[in-house]
Amino acid sequence: MKRLFSLLLIAVLLVHALPFSVSAAEETVTINVYNWGQYISDGTDDCIDVIDEFEAAYPNIKVNYMTFDSNESMYTKLKAGGSTFDIIIPSDYMVQKLIEEDMLEQLDFSNIPNYQYIDDSFKNLAFDPGNLYSVPYTWGCVGVIYNTKYVDPADVGSWDLLWNEKYAGKILMFDNPRDAFAIAESKLGYSINTEDSTLLSLAAGELREQKPLVQAYVMDQIFDKMERGEAWIAPYYAGDFLLMVEENPDLDFYFPEEGFNLFVDAICIPRGAEHKEAAETFINFLISPEICAQNLEYLGYSAPSTAAKELMDPDFAANPIAYPDGETLSGGTAFMSLSQRGTQEMDSLWTMVKTADTATTVYLILTVAAIALVIFLWIFFKVRKRNRKARRCAKWKTAQ
To answer: Judging by DSSP bridges, how do beta strands 332-333 and 214-218 pair with one another?
Structure first.
């Protein structure tokens, strides 16, 4: 039924004026799209395959789809060069950083007429106040996912759960510095946008204290671990929880009482993109109410478009995790781009958090190995000396 519905929608889309010509005489172009993992409907469970539908609607545009697992890894790839992307979908603070570093193209909104459907509340945001470089794709919140079979209800509600020794070895943690530090900062009552060196060091101390309890630092790996019950507790994005709970109904979610990150992920075109007009056509397709509704209903993320939300299943549109009420949202804070100094300091502290115990372990292993070698050599030479003495004695007895 969903597949049939999607085909009908595509038929409707095709009768509208297309911002990108699909004349058979035109050369086919391929756009390189760089997005988060698990972040577009791919036809699973008979849902819409967004890329297939786009390529059907625009035969002259093909999509080469690639994924990243954190804003930081995406930025590193983009900064290093050597790869050309036409579309990227970073989070708010990373969009701001890319704008500040002149790494994005200004958009031609005459090629993106569906921008009219984006709600005013998602325009003129702090990371792109002039609406020049980005179009909102999704929004959502970070919270705590936990397994109700193993986690005591009395322990939930706070970020403290991630530091609870009762669940040592069953706790997962973000494998990127910005999200990890935000959790520690929220737990301590600090701003998640602080650049104060003392506060960053204190947050790093919290993360070092947590490390012995952590089973693994993860991003997309969280799906398998939480769905299979290999881990019981993890901080992650609310939209992804709604996917996980379909596979494991024992999972539940809460917004921590100390506060949490409220984010917007946006579609951008990197500086120097080879196929800017085709990329803008893809953006326009993604934010059409019909496509946005089906895509985000499958993903579990929230739509920045009331027109799209109205086309969603009413139960999903009323879900308090996908669409929290105003009181809940008041506890959310958006990330802002940190200065180069603040970013470098956080990155350095994060490296220390992740490698401190590893370095200690390596030191202990080397120390034990050295002691073992000394003992082995002592025994070897002692036995060798004894054997020599025995041979001399044997010679003396023979001579007698």
So the answer is: unpaired
Structure tokens at 295: 């895509």
How many other CB atoms are found less than 10 A from the CB of residue 102? 7
d(CA 43, CA 58): 18
Tokens of 38: 């698990």
| CA 396 – CA 400 distance, rounded (Å) | 6
Place of tokens 């001399």: 392
Host H or E run for residue 263: strand 260-267
Which helix or strand (DSSP H or E) is residue 161 part of? Answer: none
Q: Is the pTM of this model over 0.85?
A: no
pLDDT tens digits for range 257-266: 999 999 999 9
List, in order, residues 6 or more apart from 65 with CB less than 8 Å away.
33, 35, 40, 51
Residue type, 331: G
- Please say whether the beta carbons of 304 and 313 come within 8 A: no
* Cα 85 from chain centre: 19
From CA 381, how far away is CA 251, in angstroms rounded?
Answer: 61
Q: Coil, strand or helix: which one is 41?
A: coil
- 332-333 and 260-267 beta bridge pairing: parallel
Per the listing, tokens 């290093």 go with 80
Residue closest to 87 by CA, chosen among 330, 321, 277: 277
Q: How many C-beta atoms surround the C-beta of residue 124 within 10 A?
A: 10
Q: Say how far apart CA 332 and CA 255 lie, in whole Å.
A: 9
pLDDT digits (tens, 9 = 90+) for 13-61: 443 434 555 444 468 999 999 999 999 999 998 999 999 999 999 999 9
* DSSP secondary structure code for residue 113 in this structure: G
Strands 61-68 and 87-88: unpaired
CA distance 131 to 124: 6
The per-residue b/e assignment along 211-225, b for 16 or more CB within 10 angstroms, e otherwise, is eebbbebbbbbbbeb
